[in-house]
Amino acid sequence: MPIKAEDLRLYLVMGSQDCLDRDPVAVLQAAISGGITCFQFREKHSARNLRETVELGHSLRALCRTHRIPFLVNDRVDLALILDADGVHLGQDDLPVPEAKRILPPSCVIGVSARSIPEARQAQQEGADYIGIGPMFATTSKPDAKQPIGPEALAEIRQALGDFPIVGIGGITVDNMAAVRQAGADGIAVISAITRADSPEQAAQQLRQCSR
């Protein structure tokens, strides 16, 4: 299924490690009720073994399928295949896009993380379907996150890539998301702004309303 700009409007990235003591399936259900438009399963630095990760992934995948929300898997092409995901999101140190395309079905969406014009152009040229630009701001959700590049860098990448689908990620909240959208992002990707909120549903609703 091709990714559309509107699919990136409110993009939730989540694994069980992001949900505190709450059930990830319940958190995703609340986020879907609040209006997320895309979901990326990112199970990293958690206590779950591979069997448990696959079981959780199937539950989250089924929920996304019921609500027609694109279900993507972070980094792992093998897990994306096992879960019959709609696509995969790759970092700069992950499997190159051409190699991922050899393994994945033609219908699978491939997103790529980038923080510079050369990285973004390479992903575009290799056949990525969208690009995640960031980190926009400082974030505690990813222990290995690099230094923020800010909306200014996103604006430069937008100018270089034309109307290619772009989502901003990293430390985005209701208070700073306007700058990311004004810089040219088709949408925002968040983790803790939804998963750590007292009410994930209300947090998603607020982010969705502010993204108009």
Short description:
The protein is α/β, with parallel strands linked by helices and 212 residues long. The chain is 40% helix and 17% strand. The model has no long low-confidence stretch (mean pLDDT 94).
Describe this structure in words.
This protein has 212 residues and is α/β, with parallel strands linked by helices. The protein is 40% helix and 17% strand. The protein is built from nine helices and eight strands. Strands 1-2-3-4-5-6-7-8 form an eight-stranded parallel beta barrel, surrounded by six helices. Strand 2, helix 2 (50-67) and strand 3 form a beta-alpha-beta unit. Helix 1 runs parallel beside helix 2 (50-67), helix 1 (24-34) packs parallel to helix 9 and helix 5 (117-126) packs across helix 6. The chain is globular, with a radius of gyration of 16 Å.
